Amino acid sequence: MSKEEILEVKNLSTTFRTERGDLKAIDGVSFEVYKGEILGVVGESGCGKSVTSQSILRLYDEKYTAKYDGEILLDGKNIFDIPLKKMQEIRGAKISMVFQDALSSLNPVLKIGDQIMEPLRIHQKLGKKEARERTLEMLRLVGIPAPDKRIDQYPHELSGGMRQRVMIAIALACRPQLLIADEPTTALDVTIQAQIMDLIVDLNKKLDMGVILITHDLAVVAETCSRVVVMYLGQIVEEADVNDIFDNPKHPYTLGLIKSIPRLDGDPNERLYMIKGTVPLLNQIPNGCRFAPRCPYATDKCRTNMPELKAVSPTQKVRCWMVEE
């Protein structure tokens, strides 16, 4: 049985116009998201994960001078061909996003019930009574206790975990086809992180929606995702089923990320593995393979020629000269 495709990103590039010239933050990114799956997008800070997700919703159109190339196909239509005013019909209704910091994302002067009701009244034209009933249903769905009380509270009256659940309730209020979760547990303690991830996995199954999970936590990816996209400096360097990523990583960057994970059976006196160097700035992108300056296996060819993302098996693609040869 073939999987139903929700979203297809084809050769996406996002360029910001700045006083110092154009900076290409995303360069030729392509992937698909299927109904009922969780796709993990991993990489260090500055690798383009969040820019990719926000480009899908065209969030940079309104604040920045951004230029997009490529296609983002939703229901067979290119999102970049849709007038900006019409994007309101897609955001929240067909594609929703949960951001990193709920406290800065929620409006501090509006009750949480009003914030969940807003997309219901905009997209589904519900009356006030019906929208309130649906809001109470959403609060129960995301596991908030005493929803009759919480619905009339303000964000500052809730804990961090509760606020993040409210963000998820807002995102799922209109039953979108796709949920983008951008580091949804960053500001939470470990116990609450596990609860929020369990909630996202549970809702993914219940609602049969697609999820793009953006994270730097490979342990979360191993537990929740079916496929993984590994990004480095605006490009995909490896894409594979989750089992392939952990059992048989091909790209040196992926291997470095996995080796950096602390192990319970490791030597407590041994220093943790660390990938040398840092992610370069966008105005300092190296020639050839972008990971070459930090790669222990890099050759002269790697430093001068850019490898393409190529399939090495039916379930795995890699951008690396060493693998290709």
Keywords:
single chain, 325 residues, alpha/beta, 8-stranded mixed sheet, 4-stranded antiparallel sheet, 13 helices
Describe the structure.
The chain has helices at 49-56, 60-63, 102-105, 112-123, 128-141, 147-150, 160-172, 190-207, 218-224, 242-247, 252-259, 300-304, 321-324, and strands at 5-18, 21-34, 38-42, 66-74, 77-78, 95-98, 178-182, 210-214, 227-232, 235-241, 310-313, 316-318. Helix 4 runs parallel beside helix 7 (160-172). The strands form two sheets. The protein has an eight-stranded mixed sheet, sandwiched between helices. Strand 11 (310-313) and strand 12 (316-318) form a beta hairpin. It is 33% helix and 24% strand. The protein is α/β, with parallel strands linked by helices and 325 residues long. The longest helix has 18 residues, at 190-207. The model has no long low-confidence stretch (mean pLDDT 89).
